[in-house]
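Continuing the batch. This is chain 6 of the set; chains 1 through 5 are on the previous pages. Same settings as before, nothing changed between runs. Recording input and output for traceability.
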Amino acid sequence: MPGSGVCGSQRGIIARCDLDHGLFVRFVLLLGGPDVSLELLPTMAESTLWAVFKFELTEDKLMIKPTLRSLAAVLSFCLFPLLLSAQQSKAGVLSAQEIKRVVPAAYFFRGQSAPVQLRNSGGFRTADGKLVLAGFVDTSGYSMDVQAKYQGFFITEVKLNIEGTELAPGEYGFGFFKDGKFLVMEVGANDLFTVSGHVDDKMARPVPLKVVADGDGYRLYAGRKWVGLKPE
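Output for chain 6:
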């Protein structure tokens, strides 16, 4: 089972919550005698939460009805982390808190690990929950030839289309050149491909690195330079 544990209790009533892929929670209320299980199926449509109740009683046990107050208290304990998890799993650009949880502190590339600049990292989540991450790395420990082209890490769990060129899921390095071109390398620092990027001259306050939504895809910015990333 993907995840389970005691999530709350009120007046002797204990609720065990089992999480299945972030979309299904089963609450088992242990009411001293019978087991009563409540299956809650959240739907993202109009933020509505529908509930299906199923009572499992054995013939030699009597049903003990919980008070409404006790039942509400138990459900409140369990529903809050469920709804929070659903919000955190929403497709789109990752928040600063999500970046802190998923971006590595160091990244291996060309024979060594180097610290990742968390403040200059970004990413997005696809509709099926997969991640694409990118961020700058401290390259001061690398040779001059690596520093000349390697700026940061690039991790994708899905196939991407980058300015017309496909990139398979995996871990890579990347770099933007002064002329706006974007280079992708495998972790051995061998070049995979280079594509022509874009320059956003109208950007008022460029930052070192960020990811923004762009229609059905995304843009990876380094200052005013950017390339389009489209999940396939």
